[in-house]
Amino acid sequence: MLNPEAPKKLGQINSNTPVEPEDRLRDVWTNQKHTVIDLGDDLFTRGRPHPMIDHRLRNERLIKEARDPEVAVILLDVVLGYGSHPDPAADIAPVIQQARDLATKAGRHLVIVGFVCGTAADSQNLSRQETALREVGVTLAESNAQAVRMASSVVLEAGIVGGRL
Predict the structure, then answer these.
(1) What is the pTM of this model?
(2) Which of 62, 8, 138 is nearest to 129 (CA)?
C-alpha cells in the first residue's frame, strides 16, 4: 500500500542536496542511515559528463550499495530526451540485474524503485526504456514524487528504522 506520508515518517533523510542544513551528508561517498544522493550535483560532474549521459558513476554506486547489507531500497531516476544517454536502459539494466543478484546471493531482497522522466516523443523510446527496466525487476512509478513515496513505504513496511534509502 502506497503511504503518502511515508517519507515524513522515515525521520531524518541525509543527502548531498538536503532540504534542511542539518540533513547534509558528511561524506557523499558513504551513506548514513536513510540517504538520498543526487549524482547530478556539481560535486559529481566536475571533470566528467553528467550521469544522464554517462552512467558509469551511477552504475558503480549501484553495485556498491547492493553489496551493503544495510541497503534495502535503491531509488533512481532515468532521464530521457535531448542531452541524455541514447539508450539508458541498455546501460543500466545489466547493472541493476547484477546488483539484485549480489543481494540475493547474500540472502537479501533488494528493492529498486525508479521513475523514467520522458515522453513517447523522446528518441530513446519511453515505452522500451520502461519495459527494459521492469524486466530486471525495477518497480516504476508514474512520477519522481510517487517513486519517493513508494521507496519510503517499502522501508516502513519492512520495519527498517535506520536503514538506507
Answers:
(1) 0.86
(2) 138
